[in-house]
Each structure stands twice: as structure tokens, then as C-alpha cells.
Amino acid sequence: MEKLRLRRSARKDSERIEELVYDYYYQIVPMLDGFSREEETVCKKIVDKEGNIIAGCTGYIYPWGCMYIDDMWVDEKYRRQELGSNALQAVEKAAESKGCHLIWLGTWDFQARPYYLKHGYTVFSALNDSPKGHTDYQLFKCLDQKQPKRKCKPIKYELLDGIEEDVDYICDRLEEYNDRHLDIKHDYIKINRKLVDEDGKVVAAIMAGVTDVDVGWISKIWVDEEYRNQGLGTHLIKHYEKKAKEKGATKIIAEEIYDWNVGFFLKAGYKIAGELKDLPKGHTFFIMERDL
């Protein structure tokens, strides 16, 4: 490792590392037929008579037959009118029609956990003090078990498919709502790092950072097969933890962890905060945490 150099990762490095990570994942668990490598965006919006978006829900379909619901928002003036429920069930229907077997999502304590519970979701992780003073819940719903759906009252507004601009609009409105409940410290801080050999080839990398509420977040960590079991991953994660703490992070969350790489994080001092079976089918998805 003494011949390797630690460097900041550029955007092109991160894009390449992401490709390599998924190449490795799909060797372990192949993509399902009918699904593409690039996630498929699903957006359902509800508009008033003037065409203004008053509610919406967005999700992403992944190649292992699952959907992550990213954003759910209803204008405060239109709440408790079943708009959110209609948008949510429309997104769920899109996932079912695609052949997804599972949906998962995250929600803070000041958001909509009771609402999702009413719609058949189950909590599988509760991250306390993420950020300080709040709990971050992760929930899931199995679509292949034919659970009875909550009946929604009809609405007097139009429900439509959204485009990319609508996804951004719904995300921005939800962030405005969240900002009223959270103590925003700064913009997201990237701490992407790479290890390169004497020829400049990337042999290991970590994609991580610190969120705007001082929670550390590890997206991906990768080591070239030739360099594995030499401590490079541990070197990267320790460097990241030091930098994250210097930037004000009080906790680190690693979410894209599976049964084939969970052992690395356990050895690095992380603990399991939640686990979700059959993501992907026959395997287990983990959420890991470590307090700094």
C-alpha cells in the first residue's frame, strides 16, 4: 500500500466506480429479465384546475425487481383529502405492473410514518439521532404477497404521469417542508477519495460525504479484485471517518450493504440498524450505523 497514493475523486472517477460496483453486484445477483441497469423513474402528480402540482410521489425501479420511493409531498392547503394516498397507490401500481416484488422508503419522525403504516408498510430500521434529536425510519412493503390495499376516497383533481421537471418540483417542495423541521448546517459535503497506483490507475475508492444535517453517509466502497484483502478498504473508510468528523458529522450511515459485504462493515466497527430480506431475492439488505 506504500506505493499507492490517496487522492480526491473527480466526477468521472465516481461514475466509473459506480459502474464497477454494480458490475460486481450483478455478478453475484444478475439483473432480472425485463428490468434495465439504469433505474426507471416513476412520477405521479396531482394537479388543480390550472395545472399546478398540488401533490406528488416519485420512485425509482431497480434491476432486482424493487422500487425505492424517494419523495412524497402534498401541498398543505390540500392535505387530508386523500391526494397523497392516490398518488402513492398510483406509484405502487406502476411498480406492480413492472413486476416489482418489494418497495421500501425512508421517513423522518416529523413526516409520515403513521401514514405509511396505514398503507401496509412495516418499519425495519429506526436510526436514532439521525440527525440529532430525530429518528430516521425505513419501511418496506411486499408487493408479491397480495396484501389488501387501503381504499382511497375519490378525488376531484386530475392524477397524471410526471416528467423530470415535475420530479424536481416535488423534491424541492418536500425539501422546503423538511427544512422547517431540521437544523440545516451547510450544503452536502463530498468526501470521495481514491487510491491510485504509480501509473495513476484507480485501485480502490470510497464515495461518501456529510449531509446538510451533519450525518455522514457512505454510498459505495470498492477495491479492485487484485488488491483485495490488503487493508485498502479499511484505509479508505478510516480516512473518511476522520474527515467526516472534522466536518461535523456525529453519526455515519451506510445503506447500500448486502449479505456479501456486511462482514467488512462489522469488522470496521459498524452495527446493524436494520435488515430487509429479499432485497434482492434470496439475499438481505442492511442499514449500518456508527456513532462518531
Fourth CATH level, the homologous superfamily of the largest domain:
Gcn5-related N-acetyltransferase (GNAT)
Low-confidence stretches: none
Number of helices: 6
- The 3D shape can be described as globular
Order of helices and strands: EHEEEHEHEEEHEEEEHEHEE
What percent of the residues sit in helical stretches (DSSP H or I)?
Answer: 25-40%
Summarize model confidence as the mean pLDDT.
Answer: 95
**Structural classification:** alpha+beta
Distance between the termini: 26 Å
Q: Over the alpha carbons, how many angstroms does the gyration radius reach? A: 20 Å
Q: Could you please describe the fold and organization of this structure?
A:
By secondary structure, the chain is α+β, with helices and mostly antiparallel strands. The protein has two domains: 5-29 and 185-291, Gcn5-related N-acetyltransferase (GNAT) (Aminopeptidase, 3-Layer(aba) Sandwich); 40-179, Aminopeptidase. It contains six helices and 15 strands. The chain has helices at residues 11-28, 83-98, 113-118, 164-179, 232-246, 262-267; strands spanning 5-8, 40-47, 53-62, 66-74, 102-108, 122-128, 135-142, 158-161, 189-190, 193-196, 202-210, 215-223, 251-258, 271-277, 284-291. Helix 2 links the parallel strand 4 (66-74) and strand 5. The mean pLDDT is 95.
